[in-house]
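Figure 3 (text version): structure tokens given as input.
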């Protein structure tokens, strides 16, 4: 993700440099190239990094079974979100992990699903929720 951000900043910098020194026609060609580059980065490069991060989280970090699940409609995300509640036995600190939004209400499917939270050992804000196929059923 950091690599993609650096690429985007470099492309924008190149676009500004082109616009200020060469002329409008070449700047428009540069803008077209910049748009294509950003699209390629977003469609092809970022998903690979996200998949790699999920795999790294699954292999290197801890698996947490939530103590309680709660379904709510999130108007900002425009979908139903499952909140997974967990209290750390070492510190007593409470955590809430949220899933990506679902288009339909997942409540009827929660009894059969085994939901696990895979989190970084040091920083629990870096997590992935393994829903065991629940995301495919609810769509």
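Below: residues designed for each position.
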């Amino acid at each position: 993700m950091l690599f993609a951000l650096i690429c985007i900043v470099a492309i924008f910098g190149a676009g500004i440099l082109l616009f200020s020194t060469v002329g409008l026609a070449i700047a428009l060609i540069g803008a077209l190239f910049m748009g294509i580059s950003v699209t390629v980065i977003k469609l092809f490069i970022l998903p690979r990094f996200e998949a790699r991060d999920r795999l790294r989280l699954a292999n290197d970090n801890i698996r947490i079974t939530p103590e309680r699940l709660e379904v709510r409609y999130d108007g900002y995300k425009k979908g139903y979100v499952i909140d997974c509640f967990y209290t750390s036995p070492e510190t007593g600190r409470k955590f809430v992990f949220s899933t990506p939004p679902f288009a339909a209400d997942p409540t009827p499917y929660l009894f059969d699903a085994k939901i696990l939270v895979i989190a970084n050992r040091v920083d629990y804000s870096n997590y992935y929720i393994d829903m065991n196929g629940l995301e495919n059923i609810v769509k």
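The beta strands are 62-64, 68-74, 79-87, 94-98, 116-119, 127-130.
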